[in-house]
C-alpha cells in the first residue's frame, strides 16, 4: 500500500510539473503580453519600463526558474490588471465554483443512481425505455444551450428563478442542474448496465437462493459491486465538470474561478491564468489520487495488486 | 445480431438532409447570412404573430436572417466535426501503431505517459488557452480540436495492435517473410479499424459540440463566421427581451445534428464492437464505451 501511495504521489508531482511547464511554454511561444497590455500610443520607453517592472525583460531560462520558484512558494505575481496577487484572486473565487461543482455532483448522483436502479430492475420496461431515450437526449444537448433554455423558461417566460448572480441557494438551482444534466444521463446508464451485469453473478444468485428479499439483494449485494465503475467515472468526470463549469459560470454570471480565468484569458492576464491552471491541476491530481484510494478501499483485488 | 444490425433510419435520413443542406447552403439559404437589415431587426419567425415568410425563422438583433445563418452554421459544424476528428485519427493512429508495433521500449513508455497527461487535462481548457493566446479563426479551432484529440486514438490503436500482435496470423505473416512495415499496414491496420470507427463515431458529435462551445465563449471562430455556437451567443442577449428565436432556433439545429450523430454512433458501436455485440446477444447490456477502457486501466495499476 505504501509503495502504491508513493508511486501515485510521484506521478502526480510529475504531471503537475509538466502542466506548469507547458503553460509557461505556451505563453511565451504565442505572444507578447506587453503588446496586449500597453495602449497603442504608449512610448517605447514606457513599454520598456513596464516590461522591466513585470520581469519580462529577463532571459527565458531566468524567467522559467523564477516562475518555478514562485509556483513552489504559491506566489505567482500580481494580476496585470487589478494589481492584486493572482493566487488570491483565484482562491477567493474557489468556494463559488466548489459549491457549483459539488451541488451538481450531488444532483447527478442523487438522481442518476436511483434512475439506474429503477431501469435495471425491469430491463426493457417502460421506465427503462423512457430513461434510455432521455439519456441519449441528455448527451446531445450542449451545456450552454441547456442553460439558455432553462433561463428562457424559468427566468424570462415564468420568472421564477434568478438568471444570474450568486446571492442565495436559489441562484444555484439552474446552474447546478445545467451542469448535472449530462451526468445524470451518464450515471443512469452506467448504474443500469453494471447493475444488470452484477445481478447475473454468483454472489447475487447465492443471496437470492438464501431467501434474501429482492430490495436487499439489489441495494446491499449487487449495488456495492456496481458502484466501482461509478467511482472511476466520477474521477474522470471531475475534470469535465470543471470544463463545463467554465460555460455554466459564464451563462449564469456566477462569480466563480472559471469565469475569472476566462476573463483573464480574454485579456492575456498571465499570472491569473497561471494561478488558475495550477489550482485546477492540483485539484485534479488530488481527486484522481483520492479516486485511486477509494478504489482500493472498495475493491480488495486492487489493493493486493498495488 | 438481428435487429441491431439495421441502420437507424430516422437519424440517418435527418443527418443526410442536414448534410445536403450544408453542402448546398448557397442554393437553399433564402438570404446572405451576413446581410443586415436593421429595419427588420428581431422579426419573429413566420408562424409567430408579426413574422413574415420572407424570414421563415425570423431575424436576429442585427437583422440577419436566422434560417440562413442556421444553414451556413451547419456547414461550419460539420466541417469542424469531420476535419478535426480526421486530424486526431491520423495523428493518434500513426503514433499508436508505431508504439504498439515497436512494443515495450522507451518510445512506448514516454508516449503513454504523454497520453495519460493529455487525457488528464480537460480538452476545453487546453483549447481555450491555445485559442486565447493565438487568436480566433475556424482553421485554428479545427486544428486545436484535432490536436487535442490525438491521445484517445493513440491509446486505442496501441492497445488493439498489442492485442492483435499476439495472434497467429501475424506470426504466419512474419514467418512468410513479411517486413515490419508490411505487417503493420497490411495485417495489423485492417484489424484495428473496427474500434477506430467506433471511437470516430463517438468523437464527431463531441467535436461538433466543442466547436460550438468554444465559439459560444467567444474564443472560437471569427465574429463574421456563421457558426451555430457564435450565433447562439449573439442571440442570447435578446433572450431577456423575449426574442428567443435568434438563440433557441440555431441551438435546436445544433441539438438535432448532435442527436442524429449520437444515434448513428450507437448503431456503429453495436455493429462494429464485438465485445459490445456479444454482450448484447447474451442479453446482458454492455457498459458505455467510455467506461470500459477506464475500468481496465484502473484495475491494473
Write the layout of secondary structure elements.
The complex is a heterodimer of chains A (306) and B (301).
Chain A: H1 2-30, H2 33-37, H3 44-53, H4 60-73, H5 86-121, H6 126-138, H7 143-157, H8 170-198, H9 202-210, H10 214-251, H11 257-266, H12 270-298, H13 300-305
Helix pairs in contact in A: 1-4, 1-12, 5-6, 5-8, 5-10, 5-11, 5-12, 6-8, 7-8, 7-10, 8-10, 9-10, 10-11, 10-12, 11-12
Chain B: H1 9-23, H2 25-28, H3 66-102, H4 106-120, H5 123-134, H6 138-148, H7 150-165, H8 168-175, H9 180-216, H10 228-236, H11 245-272, H12 274-281, H13 291-299
Helix pairs in contact in B: 1-3, 1-11, 3-6, 3-7, 3-9, 3-11, 4-7, 5-6, 6-9, 7-9, 8-9, 9-10, 9-11, 10-11, 11-12
Task: Give a brief rundown of this model.
Chain A is mainly alpha-helical. Chain A has helices at 2-30, 33-37, 44-53, 60-73, 86-121, 126-138, 143-157, 170-198, 202-210, 214-251, 257-266, 270-298, 300-305.
Features:
heterodimer; A: 306 residues; mainly alpha; 13 helices; 0% strand; B: 301 residues; elongated; disordered C terminus
Describe the structure.
The complex is a heterodimer of chains A (about 300) and B (about 300). Chain A is an all-alpha fold and about 300 residues long. Chain A has helices spanning about 1-30, 35, 45-55, 60-75, 85-120, 125-140, 145-155, 170-200, 200-210, 215-250, 255-265, 270-300, 300-305. Chain B is mainly α. Chain B has helices spanning about 10-25, 25-30, 65-100, 105-120, 125-135, 140-150, 150-165, 170-175, 180-215, 230-235, 245-270, 275-280, 290-300. In chain B, helix 5 runs antiparallel to helix 6 (about 140-150) and helix 10 runs antiparallel to helix 11 (about 245-270). The longest helix of chain B is centred in the N-terminal third of the chain and has 37 residues, at about 65-100. Chain B is elongated, with a radius of gyration of 23 Å. The chains are: A mainly alpha (about 300), B mainly alpha (about 300). At the A-B interface, helix 1, helix 7, helix 8, helix 10 and helix 11 of A face helix 4, helix 5, helix 9, helix 10 and helix 11 of B.
Amino acid at each position: 500500500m505504501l509503495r502504491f501511495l508513493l508511486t501515485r504521489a510521484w506521478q502526480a508531482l510529475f504531471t503537475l510539473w509538466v502542466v506548469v511547464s507547458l503553460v509557461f511554454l505556451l505563453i511565451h511561444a504565442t505572444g507578447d503580453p506587453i503588446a496586449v497590455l500597453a495602449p497603442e500610443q504608449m512610448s517605447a520607453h514606457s513599454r520598456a519600463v513596464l516590461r522591466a517592472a513585470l520581469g519580462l525583460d529577463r532571459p527565458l531560462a531566468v524567467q522559467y526558474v523564477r516562475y518555478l520558484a514562485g509556483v513552489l512558494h504559491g506566489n505567482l505575481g500580481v494580476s496585470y490588471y487589478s494589481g492584486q496577487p493572482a493566487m488570491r484572486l483565484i482562491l477567493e473565487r474557489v468556494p463559488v465554483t466548489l459549491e457549483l461543482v459539488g451541488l451538481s455532483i450531488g444532483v447527478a448522483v442523487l438522481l442518476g443512481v436511483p434512475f439506474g436502479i429503477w431501469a435495471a430492475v425491469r430491463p426493457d420496461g417502460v421506465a427503462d425505455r423512457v430513461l434510455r431515450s432521455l439519456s441519449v437526449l441528455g448527451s446531445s444537448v450542449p451545456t450552454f444551450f441547456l442553460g439558455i433554455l432553462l433561463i428562457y423558461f424559468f427566468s424570462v417566460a415564468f420568472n421564477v428563478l434568478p438568471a444570474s448572480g450568486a446571492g442565495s441557494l436559489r441562484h444555484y438551482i439552474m446552474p447546478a442542474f445545467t451542469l448535472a444534466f449530462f451526468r445524470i444521463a451518464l450515471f443512469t446508464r452506467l448504474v443500469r448496465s453494471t447493475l444488470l451485469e452484477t445481478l447475473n453473478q454468483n454472489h447475487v444468485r447465492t443471496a437470492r437462493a438464501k431467501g434474501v428479499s429482492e430490495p436487499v439483494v439489489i441495494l446491499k449485494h449487487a449495488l456495492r459491486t456496481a458502484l466501482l465503475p461509478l467511482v472511476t467515472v466520477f474521477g474522470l468526470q471531475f475534470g469535465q465538470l470543471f470544463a463545463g463549469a467554465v460555460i455554466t459560470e459564464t451563462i449564469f454570471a456566477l462569480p466563480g474561478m472559471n469565469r475569472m480565468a476566462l476573463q483573464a484569458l480574454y485579456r492575456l492576464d498571465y499570472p491569473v491564468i497561471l494561478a488558475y491552471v495550477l489550482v485546477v491541476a492540483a485539484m485534479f491530481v488530488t481527486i484522481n489520487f483520492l479516486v485511486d484510494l477509494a478504489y482500493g478501499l472498495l475493491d480488495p483485488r486492487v489493493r493486493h495488486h498495488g | 445480431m438481428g435487429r441491431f444490425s439495421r441502420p437507424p433510419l430516422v437519424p440517418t435520413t435527418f443527418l443526410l438532409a442536414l448534410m445536403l443542406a450544408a453542402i448546398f447552403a448557397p442554393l437553399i439559404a433564402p438570404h446572405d447570412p451576413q446581410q443586415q437589415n436593421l429595419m427588420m431587426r428581431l422579426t419573429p419567425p413566420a408562424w409567430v404573430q408579426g413574422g413574415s415568410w420572407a424570414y421563415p425563422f425570423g431575424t436576429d438583433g442585427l437583422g440577419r436572417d436566422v434560417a440562413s445563418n442556421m444553414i451556413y452554421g451547419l456547414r461550419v459544424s460539420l466541417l469542424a466535426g469531420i476535419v478535426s476528428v480526421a486530424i486526431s485519427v491520423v495523428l493518434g493512429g500513426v503514433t499508436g501503431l508505431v508504439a504498439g508495433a515497436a512494443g515495450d521500449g522507451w518510445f512506448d513508455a514516454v508516449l503513454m505517459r504523454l497520453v495519460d497527461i493529455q487525457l488528464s487535462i480537460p480538452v476545453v481548457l487546453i483549447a481555450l488557452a491555445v485559442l486565447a493566446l493565438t487568436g480566433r479563426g475556424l482553421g485554428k479551432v479545427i486544428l486545436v480540436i484535432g490536436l487535442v484529440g490525438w491521445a484517445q486514438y493513440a491509446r486505442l490503436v496501441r492497445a488493439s495492435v498489442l492485442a492483435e500482435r499476439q495472434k497467429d496470423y501475424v506470426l504466419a505473416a512474419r514467418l512468410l517473410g513479411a517486413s515490419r512495415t508490411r505487417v503493420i499496414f497490411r495485417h495489423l491496420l485492417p484489424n484495428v479499424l473496427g474500434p477506430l470507427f467506433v471511437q470516430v463515431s463517438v468523437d464527431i458529435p463531441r467535436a461538433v459540440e466543442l466547436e460550438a462551445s468554444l465559439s459560444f465563449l467567444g474564443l472560437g471562430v471569427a465574429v463574421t463566421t456563421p457558426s451555430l455556437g457564435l450565433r447562439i451567443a449573439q442571440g442570447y442577449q435578446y433572450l431577456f427581451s423575449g426574442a428567443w428565436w435568434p438563440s433557441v432556433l440555431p441551438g435546436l439545429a445544433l441539438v438535432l445534428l448532435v442527436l442524429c450523430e449520437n444515434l448513428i454512433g450507437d448503431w456503429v458501436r453495436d455493429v462494429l464492437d464485438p465485445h459490445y455485440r456479444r454482450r448484447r446477444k447474451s442479453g446482458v447490456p454492455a457498459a458505455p464505451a467510455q467506461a470500459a477502457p477506464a475500468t481496465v486501466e484502473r484495475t491494473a495499476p
